[in-house]
Amino acid sequence: MTENKNLSTQKWYASWFDSPFYHILYKDRDYNEAQHFMDNLTSYLNLPEEAKILDLACGKGRHSIYLNSLGYNVTGADLSENSIAEASKAANETLHFKVHDMRDTCKEKYDAIFNLFTSFGYFENDADNLTTLKAIHNSLTETGFACIDFMNVDYVIANLVPEEVKTVENIDFHIKRYVKQNHIYKEIRFTAEGEDYHFTEKVQALRLTDFEQMMEEAGIYLLDIFGNYKLQKFFKNESERLIMIFK
């Protein structure tokens, strides 16, 4: 999916998420909001002290590190070797990181598995979404809970900004967004150190009904649905997020 000559052989998510430019573009994300979300989520789930949590698609591990600071035994897992190498600098006795494909069931079981900030729906093959849900389900303890925090597709499409330029660290990122064949695309073009780059993010436009259908097929029990990080009610057209708690 990328046009950069060195990266074109890989899946787009394997190359773009591994790129240092990905972390530059998204470095100003609201981590306070993310921490409040973690506080709200762990409180709502009433997880036992020292519960084992898997942060699935953890990136550089910022949320894993915060969850660990709350007293939980946390494993951060991500497909990106670069991100895991960076995250591992913060590892300790109760904080571990590993390179892991979310389609694979984990060897050990977890009290909670979190898949946060739209880290789902990237696969070329639709069947991989169901495989991932089954893997999450099979990696939980009998009393464990999982949370998928996804975008609310209807809200995102209604509020899509077709084009913008975002300048971070003297790099002008030219961003174009559009919907095509039930996917939301974000094309990112920029020049850095004299080289031109072009990456395309592509996320499946999965709605609640899609998740419900897949969860039923995977034998998953959907417990609760929230529409934002304050864990308020989900409204199809107004909520920014689609947060699903299941077991």
UniProtKB/TrEMBL annotation:
Residues in coiled coil: none
Keyword field contains Methyltransferase: yes
A GO molecular function held by the record: methyltransferase activity
Methyltransferase domain ranges (all copies): 53-144
A Pfam family: Methyltransf_25
Membrane-spanning intervals of the chain: none
Alphabetical list of PANTHER family matching this protein: TRANS-ACONITATE 2-METHYLTRANSFERASE, TRANS-ACONITATE 2-METHYLTRANSFERASE-RELATED
Protein name as annotated: Class I SAM-dependent methyltransferase
Lineage: Bacteria, Pseudomonadati, Bacteroidota, Flavobacteriia, Flavobacteriales
